[in-house]
Amino acid sequence: MTGQTIDGVGYVATPPAGSGPGLIVLQEWWGLVPHIKDVVDRFAQEGYVAIAPDLFQGTTTTSPDEAGRLLMALNIEQTATTLQRTVEFLLNHDAVTSHQVGVVGFCMGGQLALLTATVSDRIGAVVNFYGIHPKVSPDFSQLSAPVLGLFAADDTFVTPAAVQQLEAAVQTAGKSMTTHTYPGVTHAFFNDTRPEVYNAEAAADAWQRTLAFLADNLAPV
Description:
alpha/beta, Rossmann fold, 8-stranded mixed beta sheet, 6 helices, 8 strands
């Protein structure tokens, strides 16, 4: 099964059964590239109505320098509005069976997943894959959902010390965050289109942890 791109909305895929819980998938700094669309399709196969909003409005890149520029140029206030609209799109979708939606993000999208759950009270679960964005500082006192954080021990962008600080900040705000750090892997270990960083064993384990966490926290209506 493959999804479809809806202008002004993003890439959307529905499950074989035709309905299921709602889930937002948030891109890395490369943009809404085929890898992220594939992840949306994978979640649809697992029973979710999944959507990846196009946060760079059609722009994609394979250049780390350009990706860094796109990340830093992202208007966070506008992005927060886009994320809220994406939540509402799912909640109003005829195929969505949950009263809350989940959000899973990778790299830049991992930090934006945290942001989503602080600007919307309709989030039931957050999965943060090695999230980083220097301009995004979520107000964790407003965090509306439990968080699963999946990190890499050899990550030079999101170091183990940064993970500890994030977990402490969430818990200090009285919110719930569980983390798992994979030894011997680096940033973006889940991205199977990048053989220089992809780790199949860690990615498979992280996928199963993600599915279990979402199943535990996204109850149907």
